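Hi R.,

As promised on Friday, here is the backbone we talked about, encoded as structure tokens. Could you run it through your design pipeline when you get a chance and send me back a sequence?
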């Protein structure tokens, strides 16, 4: 039974290390978002392109938030 749990333990430890690295680099990624990014990279998505998409999405969200906070009708 212990042998079956070893890969799960290793995966959790790896993810914890990735989460710590993400935190140290101030990526602002939440665990769920980081997990999605990892799965996309494992599926063959180019990490540099993925990072660019994440940055662009953040800009869009920030722009939308700024527009809604400056809109007097909301």
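Update: got your reply. Pasting your designed sequence below so it's all in one thread:
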């Amino acid at each position: 039974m212990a042998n079956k749990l070893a890969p799960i333990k290793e995966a959790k430890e790896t993810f914890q290390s990735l989460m710590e690295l993400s935190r140290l680099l101030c990526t602002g990624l939440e665990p769920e978002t980081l997990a999605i990014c990892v799965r996309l990279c494992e599926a063959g998505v180019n990490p540099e392109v993925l990072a660019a998409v994440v940055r662009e999405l953040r800009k869009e969200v920030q722009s939308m938030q700024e527009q809604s906070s400056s809109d007097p009708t909301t």
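One thing I noticed while checking it: The mean pLDDT is 91.

Thanks again,
M.
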